[in-house]
Amino acid sequence: MAITASMVKELRETTGAGMMDCKKALTETNGDMEKAIEFLREKGLAAAAKKAGRIAAEGLVAAHISDDFKVGAIVEVNSETDFVSKNEDFQKFTADVAAQASVTTATDLEGFLKEQWLIDTSKTVEEVLVQKIAVIGENLSIRRFEKYEASNGFVESYIHGGGRIGVIVEMATDNVSDSAKEAAKNIAMQIAAIAPQYISNDEVSEEFKEKEREILKQQAMNENPDKPENIIDKMIVGRLAKQLKEVCLLDQQYVKDGDLTVGKYLEQVSKELGTSITVKRFVRFETGEGIEKKEENFAEEVARQLGQ
């Protein structure tokens, strides 16, 4: 039987499942609407679709580093509630997604979701996600991933707060000793704690600096309305320099030794290793950042988990 667009539309409106899933269900059931609905329910797709509108702003960040430390990946997988992020099944799924990301060839999330799931190649990443939604009973979302492959050096990671914040950092060096890895871990911890935006001042665009100048100048003018503009301009030079030190990793005060900057710390490590070690790039994920969270109290969260 030929599957028409109107049939797909009707099934989609009835179940809330995705268009491609509806088309597949109708094809598998030879156009029988009732059997197609049962097909989607059995696969957990209809139930998952109903949850898709809920805000998934909690969850976990996980990282996966290859045995040779040459490849690293970081992912954020979201859930609706913090309650679920503590679920062992959800934690394992997030770790599996990170492992998947470490071998992915996808360059974007859409491609990643369409890839075969490593643990069961008969399913795609997206199909496994949908099944997990049906099992756990909340809307889940693989929000983002990043993968690093080190050509001259290695990749290290750090996860803070049980998965609230995660960092992977690529170090450029020809020394991949335990001491070098320890230094990289310290750098990743620094990034997790202080959240720099750049490695060094050289990376900061003139556009960013000019925007900061304008903001700092307006602040200074509001604080000192009687001072002439030329004095204000001199005042903001120091303020801008201080601002840049806060957003540039190498200029930040090193959290483990306040007498050092991160740059000076890496100079010390390089001397100890007998070779240069530098930060090539990094990425920092914080769970739910930028997502508007729905306010719920703990009692409501528990009631939902119990299906009340």
Give a summary of the structure in a few sentences.
One of its GO terms (molecular function) is translation elongation factor activity. Helices cover about 50% and strands about 20% of the residues. It is of the alpha+beta class and about 300 residues long.
Give the topology, please.
Blueprint lengths: L4 H11 L3 H10 L4 H11 L1 H7 L6 E8 L5 E9 L2 H4 L2 H14 L7 H6 L1 E2 L2 E5 H12 L4 E9 L3 E8 L4 E8 L5 H17 L11 H18 L5 H19 L14 H12 L4 E9 L11 H8 L3
Antiparallel strand pairs: 1-2, 2-5, 3-4, 6-7, 7-8
Explain the overall architecture:
There is one protein chain. The chain is an alpha+beta fold and 308 residues long. Among the domains are: 5-51, Ubiquitin-associated (UBA) domain (Helicase, Ruva Protein, domain 3, Orthogonal Bundle); 58-198 and 282-305, Tetrahydropterin Synthase, Chain A (2-Layer Sandwich). It has helices spanning 5-15, 19-28, 33-43, 45-51, 82-85, 88-101, 109-114, 125-136, 178-194, 206-223, 229-247, 262-273, 298-305; strands at 58-65, 71-79, 116-117, 120-124, 141-149, 153-160, 165-172, 278-286. The strands form three sheets. Strands 1-2-5 form a three-stranded antiparallel beta sheet. Strands 6-7-8 form a three-stranded antiparallel beta sheet. A two-stranded antiparallel ribbon has the order 3-4. Strand 3 and strand 4 (120-124) form a beta hairpin. Helix 1 (5-15) crosses helix 3 (33-43) and helix 9 (178-194) packs antiparallel against helix 12 (262-273).
